[in-house]
Each structure stands twice: as C-alpha cells, then as structure tokens.
Amino acid sequence: MLAIFDSISDGVIVADEKGNLTFNQSAERIIGGRVDTVLEQRTEEYSIFYPDKVTPIPTEELPLVRALRGEATDEMEMFIRTTAKPEGVYISANGRPIASPGTTAHGGVIVFRDVTERVRAEEALVQAFAQGRLEVMDTILHNIGNAITSVAIGVGTLKEQLVNDPLIERLAALSEAVKAHAGDWDDYVQHDPQGQQVRPFLLALAADFVEQNRELIRTVERVNSQTSHIVDIVRAQRGFDSKAMTSKDVDLRQAISGALKIVQDSFASRGIRTHVDCGNAPEEIRIQETQFNQMLVNLLKNAMEAIDELKKSGGLKEQPRIEIRVCVQQDFLVLEVEDNGIGI
User: Taking the model in full, what pTM does it have?
Assistant: First the structure.
C-alpha cells in the first residue's frame, strides 16, 4: 500500500484528528520542504501565500486545516516559498474531511499538484498582452493626434476667414456708398464713373462670396471628417476593450475594418493602398476581440514599417500597398498580411 501511495504523482497529505501526518514522496518533492509542519502558515522553512505571492494565507484558511474542521476545498491555488525552493512554487489543492457517515470529521486529506509552469505561462501571456496594448495605444494616440491637428488647422482657417474677411469689408464699403448716394442713386450709378463700377463690383463680390462659401464648406467637411474619424477610433477601441478576455462571435470584416481605422492616418500619409480579400472565410468568427485587434494592428504596423524601410533605401519603385487575405484551409482560418516593402 505504501508503494502505491508513493507512486502517485500528485502530492497527498493525510492528517488524523490529533494532527499526525502521513504523506507521499510527491508531497515533499513538490513543496520542497518539511511536510510535517504543513498545518502551520509560516515556519522558518517555508511560507504560504495567496497567488499574489504577497498576502499570507491565514492558518485557518489552509486546505488541510479546513478539512479537519469538516470543510471541503476545491482547486485552491497557493504560492509556497521554501528554503529548498526560494523561487517558490504554485500549487492547486483540493481538501476533504475524513468522516464516517453521520459523524464529525476525525481527519482530513489534501491532494495537490504543481501548477507553477501553467501560472508562469499565464503571467507571461498577460505581460505580452499588456505590451501589445501599449503598442496599439501608441498607434491610436498617434493617429488621433494627427486627426486633432487637422481639426485644429481647419478651425484656425475658419476663424481667420470669418474674423478677417475682406469680403465683409468690401460689402461694408458698398453699404457706405449706398448711404452716401441715397438721394441720387439712379444718377450716381448711371453717370458717375465710380457709380458705374457698382454693377461689376456687385457681380464680382457675389462670385467671391460663392467661392468663399465653397471653401468654407470644404473646410467644415474636412473638420467633420476628422472629427468622425476620432469618434470611430475611440468607439472601435472601446469595443475592443469590453470583455477583453472573453471569446465571442465577431463580424470578421468589421473587425478588420476596425483595425484599419486605427492605422488609417498613418497609411494615408504614406500613400499606402490597402485591399481586403476574405475569400471563403465565414462572416463571423469566435475570437477574443481585443487580442485579435492587437494582433492585426501589429501586423499592419510591421507591414508599414517594412514599406518605410524600403522607401528609405530608395528601393520602392511602385505605390506602396498592403493586402489582407483571409481564407479557410482545412480546419483553420488563415489570415495573411502582405506588403511590398523590404523583405525579412
């Protein structure tokens, strides 16, 4: 029986009602310390923390202690640092009381396994995710900054045209002439050399007002377009931020469009033409939207930087282009981002 007990790869510790322990070899191997003090939260040889590695777990909350009280514990993760393993180890423990039906607990047992590799892989993923978010945010801020600059220029142009409008001054001069010749207006415009210039003056003034109005409309449209662009970027990012780690069904083409909006200004300033071909890809895919967005934005940035490198070397002889192709191959969805920039 002892040989079977020691052959179990998970750590097993059994305690009777007096606190006497029985444990297998895996328990000592995983913990890396004396198992006979496991009923205590802290000893000279080891300390037990919640997974944050900072907050000590109270002794009364330890799985084996709870089992001796008649309580069950499921998948409780803990971080244990011992003198033998100063770098620490993460374990996941299940605890159960030992009791006959209808009686109080007269012992307890915990079974635990080493989950250090899995936890540290998750931590690395979170760090990579955070770094990806920083890169995306840098791109977003850059493009929003460009749009805001364009808006500021447009508003400045409108202000200059409205505050120092020469057409208003010309119209005011005409008004003064009308007032000065209120009593002999017909004679003035028919026989006076200056009065004879009123008609062509009015026609020219009207034409200039029409042209100015067109220019003002174009400026307002540019401001409105850039403002809408800012709103689109913010709305897209808010959508990506919501329930970032939750998989959901997402419209594939809209997801690609959202990523392109984030880099739109950077592409436009470089004259980069984009083409999207979804081929036989499904309309919707189940993804973690934020991660998909970050992945695609980073791929698009890499493609743009490759084009920049080729342009700096003088090797770009055609219009820069980036193509996004999505298709289904066997049981996989394949997404490719291809550019005509410098190769790897």
Answer: 0.42
